[in-house]
Amino acid sequence: MNKDQVKGVGEQVKGKVNEAVGKATDNPGKELKGDLQQGAGKVQKGYGDAKEDAKDDAKRNTP
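Structure for CsbD family protein, as requested:
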């Protein structure tokens, strides 16, 4: 697991928390912030996953 994957998952968790707080307090701004954080976290984790896949492929193809 690389740092992008870890940071991405962290952002997703923070987003879930913000979304839940926004719903509980009837704060649409906080809820939206949570949704955006989750999306950003998914993108960053996807980038980290792609980096890991590329690294794994390079190791498999090295003689």
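The radius of gyration is 16 Å.
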